[in-house]
Amino acid sequence: MDKQTLLELYYLELDKLLAVAKEKTKNEVEFCSLISARTGKCGEGCKYCAQSSYYMTNIPTHPLVETQKVIEIAKEAKANGATRFAIVTSGRGPLDEDMPRFCEMISEINKLGLKSCASIGILKDGQAQMLKKAGLVRFHHNINTCRSYHSSITHTHTYDDRLDTIKKVKEAGLELCCGVIIGMGETVEQRVEMALELAQIQPESIPFNILTPIKGTPFENYGDKIDEENILRTAAIFKIANPNSIVRFAGGRKARLSKENMELALENCVEGILIGNYLTTIGITPEQDRETLKKLGKTLCV
Hints:
Blueprint: H1 3-10, H2 14-22, E1 28-38, H3 67-79, E2 84-89, H4 99-111, E3 115-119, H5 127-134, E4 138-140, H6 159-171, E5 175-177, E6 180-182, H7 188-201, E7 205-210, H8 228-241, E8 246-249, H9 253-256, H10 259-268, E9 272-274, H11 286-296, E10 299-300
Parallel strand pairs: 1-2, 1-9, 1-10, 2-3, 3-4, 4-5, 6-7, 7-8, 8-9
Helix pairs in contact: 1-7, 2-8, 2-10, 3-4, 4-5, 7-8, 8-10
């Protein structure tokens, strides 16, 4: 699908746009969950992020947790209906000395009957293969925004740095979870570019984050950069451009969408939910999400 066609779809009447997306959307919704296994003190300068050491955000920080803590949180996630569980860490990428611990965590997550995921940053040569050998199912690495806007959100790594890790992940035979954060000042055209760039990457899962402005970050006053209707339009365009990928609600939906619009998205274009809390913000309870799915007549992936 080309850019002009997607732009024309974007500007359709909202109900018509959602109807097009719904044709490509399954009735089944998948739950996943995560642990912030290392929080804060990140050396990257991403302007949206509370965990960057460049900014004074006063979030709680901690070093890499022990494997037992990962097991405890993973068990809770499974009890809440998650079928996938992710280890998420701050920092540019995994240190060599941390790789054995990551591999141990992956093995323990798999033993629980969950599908293991990891979001541990930019990978060096050989690290994707190590994770695959340990049993990792899926690696998460967002493009965050489109190529044309990337230099506006960070100066410490490039869009191509992110694509390089995505290439390593695919070459290692791992599944890929790759998405964006919208509402960071990008234009409508750039949201369409994101959708098309993801279509080139073809990830199994597309996390759909909406910026939650964090006090102390350069984007702390960016809460007005996208409204609810345009959030829905963007989610629909992502599904239309990526019919074989699961568009997944991730960070920001509680703060940025009404209950009614969340339901519209789940009814028409969103097929996955990151349940519970996020890295530095509070989410919606799994019980509330299950109630919403029941109301919409959706089935939960098991």
